[in-house]
Specification:
The chain is of the alpha/beta class. About 40% of the residues lie in helices and about 10% in strands. α5 crosses α6. It is globular. The structure holds zinc ion (ZN). Zinc ion binds next to loops.
């Protein structure tokens, strides 16, 4: 299976920082080891253009990010030290979601091994998120007239405040966020549908709540595409999560979401979002399981196949 990756563009981080930068490279290795992807199946998108980013984000904020002029307060909210490498990586990650979304129309389900940066809003970049990849992909798909109506299913343990700010007012977008009630962000921006789950919510309770929320979301008017944020942080051992899902439960969650969305006939673009297990191998286990669930649901074999040209389309230059 072909997937999008940006792990070869690292950025400087202080030692013992919570951000799990190494998971992306480890995930690449794991997917090759498990035979989910061949070594040539990792597509590395060019950085998204600034002219595209300012269609979604505040132009002044984009200027501050580009030039490294975030205020002390903004820097603290972001939680990652600014560097040109950080910005380049984030532009590549966002671009991967755009390209995976295009590919979803060809192969049914496509995956970016990155993205899900849902705390980035129009005029704020926080919680490790510089750019909102899903809002950006929505904007690009609409311009290309590939899609108008989008559904966002955000299963990261943290509420998708940036996505809510950008897409909830949009009459052709529906944002669903299923998350820990006592998790960041503590000041919420409401989604179309927010599901707040209590501390230590189990697999069964989680899947029941998710199933009912998906049913509600899918009773709305037809959508053209769905985005699935398959956060690994609802896992019981996660350092930044409050829920109690097991790895098997997370896999059931992935299957449930993908079957519901594919059952509704929607192309699905899957992105990683968060995951902060004390041992990064646990986060990699969860992300790899998601990739396997994606791989078995693809409608065509794409190795050098029908979506090969989509790797080059849309082409973004710096
Ligand atoms: Zn998260």
């Amino acid at each position: 299976m072909r997937v999008w990756a940006h792990d070869r563009w690292p950025f400087p981080l202080p030692p013992r920082h919570t951000y799990p930068q190494s998971k992306y490279g480890l995930l690449r290795e794991r997917l090759i080891a498990e035979g989910v992807c061949g070594p040539g199946d990792f597509i590395e998108a060019e950085p998204v253009r600034w002219s595209e980013l300012i269609k979604v984000h505040d132009v002044a904020l984009m200027g501050r990010i580009r030039r490294g002029q975030l205020s002390v307060r903004e820097q603290r909210g972001l939680g990652l030290p600014w560097s040109p490498q950080l910005v380049e990586r984030a532009r590549r990650s966002a671009s991967g979601t755009v390209q995976a979304a295009y590919a979803a129309f060809q192969v049914g389900v496509a995956m970016n091994l990155g993205g899900g940066t849902h705390h980035a809003g129009r005029d704020f970049a926080r919680g490790y998120c510089l750019f909102n990849d899903v809002a950006l992909a929505t904007s690009r798909l609409r311009e290309a007239r590939l899609a108008q109506r989008v559904l966002v299913v955000d299963c990261d343990v943290h509420q998708g405040d940036g996505t809510a700010q950008l897409l909830r007012p949009d009459p052709h977008a529906f944002t669903l966020s299923v998350h820990g009630a006592r998790n960041y962000p503590f000041k919420r921006i409401p989604s179309d549908l927010d599901v707040d789950l209590p501390r230590a919510t189990s697999d069964t309770e989680y899947c029941a709540a998710l199933e009912s929320a998906l049913a509600t979301a899918l009773t709305r008017d037809g959508y053209d595409i769905a985005f699935y944020l398959a956060g690994a942080d609802p896992w019981e051992g996660d350092r930044l999560g409050t829920l109690g899902l097991t790895k098997a439960g997370l896999r059931r969650r992935d299957a449930l979401v993908l079957d519901a969305l594919r059952g509704a006939g929607l192309p699905v673009c899957v992105v990683l979002a968060g995951g902060y297990a004390p041992n990064i191998a646990d986060t990699v286990d969860i992300n790899a399981a998601t990739a396997i669930e994606v791989a078995v649901r693809r409608t065509s074999i794409d190795r050098g196949g029908p979506d090969a040209k989509l790797a080059l389309e849309p082409r973004d230059a710096a």
